[in-house]
Amino acid sequence: MANTNNKAKKITTIATLGSHCALQVLKGAKDEGFRTLLVCEKKRVGLYERFGFIDDMIIVDKFSEVAGDRCKAALKKKDAIIIPHGTLISQMSSDEIEKIETPVFGNKWILRWEADREMKQKLMEEAGLRTPRPVQSKDKISGLCIVKLHGAAGGRGYYLAWNRESFEEGAKRLVQQGMIRGEQDLYIQEFIRGVPVYLQYFYSPVTKSLELLGVDRRYESDIDGIGRIPAKQQLGAGGEPSYTVVGNIPLVLRESLLDEVYKMGESFCRAAERLVKPGMPGPFCLEGVYDSEGRFTTFEFSARIVAGTNLYVDGSPYSGLLYDEPMSMGRRIAREVKMAKRKNCLSSIVT
Ligand code: AMP
Q1: Which residues pair with 186 in a beta bridge?
Q2: Which residues participate in the annotated binding site?
Q3: Is residue 286 within 8 Å of 210, Cβ to Cβ?
Q4: The whole model's pTM is what?
Q5: I want to staple 25 with a disulfide (CB 3.0 to 4.6 A). Which of 18, 190, 307, 330 is the partner?
Q6: What is the pLDDT of residues 33-67, one digit of tens each?
Q7: Which sequence ranges form a coiled-coil region, renumbered to this chain (predicted)?
Q8: Where are the domains of the chain?
Q9: Which tens digits make up the pLDDT trace of 247-297?
């Protein structure tokens, strides 16, 4: 981090990987007056060429090349900053991400805390958030649990277990499908009853304030489709429902919940500052379940922009309360870069 100041002296281009929320990020960057650059896999060039707000592309065979010499030189020449998103996390290891020499927006060190389940739990507990009980081993399962894979798998392969046998049955199936090597690749967590909700925040080190810019829920196959099959047929259908994310649905919370939403976000930022410097600059998301008492239990966080923000390219019911212009998360990121440049404090938003 020592050379962050030098790295980020002038930023004129906003760059990201061609996937996840790239369109929103680059559209927002363009609206804020930056040049835009997409690191794009060959197979997706045709898609992204449709959008006039993308100025340049670096074409790669695979995204991990973003850390390689060719991309590094091209990004440097353009004075670019990389906006990390879910695809960067899922395609590159934490070690690889930390070695990226191009300036990365936000705190690239916190991405390791997102990818590692134990570190993730530690940060959520440090923030004082209510979390589901982690279950240490299959013999400790009591009550309904959700079994997860490590990393940003987008809900793929998750299954429910209520005892040792149901856990082993699910693990065996995932091994057969080649999704895991063995039970050691699984993480067991208490299942929280209620409705899943995703809270999209932005913390600005420049204005020292936290903004709630949107709320969404996910549309997951096939758990969200199961209600369309009557109970009798469900019982005969067999198979295990998955939680694979297909898209996102907008949501507005009861206004009485908002105060706690802000408090949780602020506690998270303070905890991040204590555990992983420089903290949580930029976009992040607390992901959890509201139960019937209106209590929020956080089961995950994302320490970067989430794909649910794609809903709000033209702003959200929450960004509309803070800005008199359409403010997507992508545009908010670009606005932060612009403000930090003007105030000569780019080092507070770049690692
Ligand atoms: P994730 O990929 O961890 O965001 O989770 C994918 C989906 O799994 C969520 O949208 C929820 O539907 C569900 N889920 C994850 N963790 C829990 C939990 N502890 N309790 C209830 N549902 C959960």
Answers
A1: 149
A2: 20, 87, 220, 248
A3: no
A4: 0.92
A5: 330
A6: 999 999 999 999 999 999 999 999 999 999 999 99
A7: none
A8: 2-105, 115-129+193-340, 134-190
A9: 999 999 999 999 999 999 999 999 999 999 999 999 999 999 999 999 999
Q: Is the shortest distance between the CB of 159 and ligand 1 below 6 Å?
A: no
| Nearest Cα residue to atom 16 of ligand 1 | 299
Binding residues for ATP: 220
Which residue out of 219, 222, 243, 287 has the highest number of ligand 1 atoms within 8 Å of its CB and is therefore the one to mutate? 243
CB of 192 closer than 6 angstroms to any ligand 1 atom: yes
The reply to whether ligand 1 has any atom less than 6 angstroms from the CB of 299 is yes
Assign domain 115-129+193-340 one CATH number from 3.40.50.2300, 3.50.50.60, 3.30.470.20, 3.65.10.10. Answer: 3.30.470.20
Max alpha carbon distance in the chain (Å)? 65
- The terminus-to-terminus CA distance of the chain in angstroms comes to 6
Q: Which atom of ligand 1 is nearest to the CA of 148?
A: 3
Task: Return the structure tokens found at 177.
Answer: 């499908």
Per-residue confidence band for 235, with pLDDT thresholds at 50, 70 and 90:
confident
